[in-house]
Amino acid sequence: MARISSPMLLAGLLAGAAVAHAAAPGQFDATVPRSLPGSPRGWTYASGVAELALAAGVAHPRTRRAAALATAAFFVGVFPANVKMAADARHRSPAVRAVTLARLPLQVPLVLWARRVSRGAGGR
């Protein structure tokens, strides 16, 4: 069974999120804060590409430390999208509201997981 600090599990999560951004971009477009320049679809695809690059970096031992630190920063950077999603769901069903609100504190363990992976990678 994989430990929560598993770099390959983290890489898989990132790769899965990247695929989701490409396969169903509309749901991600809706989370892009309006204050960002450009089109929401551009940001959706850019974040998917970033997730794929981070996944590859975390998966490879030589780049794992830097990629895991970048992943922690990425998880912090996408937090405003989760806040927007929760705010936009305030008039939706209780189940949708609960899911979007539950995502907010989940960013903390994701950031900590990425940091643990970076520390486990050593100082290469």
Describe the structure.
Residues 1-22 form the signal peptide. This is Membrane protein. Keywords: Signal. It comes from Streptomyces avidinii. With 124 residues, the chain is mainly alpha-helical. The chain has one domain. 75% of the residues lie in helices and 0% in strands. The protein is built from six helices and no strands. The chain has helices at 7-23, 25-29, 40-59, 64-77, 79-88, 94-120. Helix 1 (7-23) packs antiparallel against helix 3. The longest helix has 27 residues, at 94-120. The mean pLDDT is 91.
What level of helicity do the residues show? over 70%
The span between the termini is 27 Å
Give the rounded overall mean pLDDT.
91
State the total count of DSSP E strands: 0
Q: Over the alpha carbons, how many angstroms does the gyration radius reach?
A: 15 Å
Which percent range describes the beta-strand content? under 5%
- Taken from the alpha-carbon principal axes, the silhouette is globular
Largest sheet: none
Class from secondary-structure proportions: mainly alpha
| Low-confidence runs | none
How many helices? The count is 6
Order of helices and strands: HHHHHH
What count of domains describes the coordinates?
Answer: 1
Signal peptide: 1-22
Keywords: Signal
Protein name: Membrane protein
